[in-house]
Amino acid sequence: MRVCIGGTFSILHNGHKVIIDKAFETSGKTGSVFIGLTSGDVINKKENVKSLEERKKKLKQYLSKRGFLDRAIIKPILDKYGPSIDDEFDAIVISPETKKTAEDINHKRLMKGKKPLKIIEIPFLVADDGLPISSSRIQNKEIDVNGRILKKD
């Protein structure tokens, strides 16, 4: 099975790891996972996003550690859809914040006569305070990559 996911992955946190792990679980032992790494104008300049090379390196380290690297295809994407509309994928793994994009992808696929992707929505992974783990919260030093609350000085 061919699965796709996408994101900025500026700070590879536990929420990202759950989505990545689910994508590889869904693809099966012989399937592949396309990981679209947002780049160009898609990136919100206010987020202080790390370079594409640095983000790709961190992803590869995680994938290697999990034994997934040989089944991963990591490529930059220049819009929120990447190749998901035109390429032959079977499923997409998303978080609640990207559900609308996945629905748009399926609508566009249907308009082109392609089969819709199976949408697998992973709930937000929450930090110790019950709020979602996010790169912005980590950058703001509210939480660490595992969702633990950081002490205020």
- What's the pLDDT, averaged over the residues? 94
The 3D shape can be described as: globular
The name of the CATH architecture is: 3-Layer(aba) Sandwich
- Percent of residues in β-strands: 15-25%
User: Which sheet architecture does the biggest sheet show?
Assistant: 5 strands, parallel
- Which fold name fills CATH's third level, the topology? Rossmann fold
CATH superfamily: HUPs
Number of helices: 4
The strand line-up of the biggest sheet is 3-2-1-4-5
CATH top level is Alpha Beta
Helical percent range?
A: 25-40%
Radius of gyration, whole Å: 16 Å
Structural category is alpha/beta
Structure explained in plain terms:
With 153 residues, the protein is α/β, with parallel strands linked by helices. The protein has one domain (2-124): HUPs (Rossmann fold, 3-Layer(aba) Sandwich). 31% of the residues lie in helices and 18% in strands. Strands 3-2-1-4-5 form a five-stranded parallel β-sheet, with helices on both faces. Strand 4, helix 3 and strand 5 (118-121) form a beta-alpha-beta unit. It is globular, with a radius of gyration of 16 Å. The model has no long low-confidence stretch (mean pLDDT 94).
Question: Which helices and strands occur, and which strands form pairs?
Answer:
Elements: E1 2-7, H1 14-27, E2 32-38, H2 52-66, E3 72-77, E4 91-94, H3 99-111, E5 118-121, H4 135-139
Parallel strand pairs: 1-2, 1-4, 2-3, 4-5
Primary descriptors:
single chain, 153 residues
What's the short version?
The chain is of the alpha/beta class. It is built from four helices and five strands.
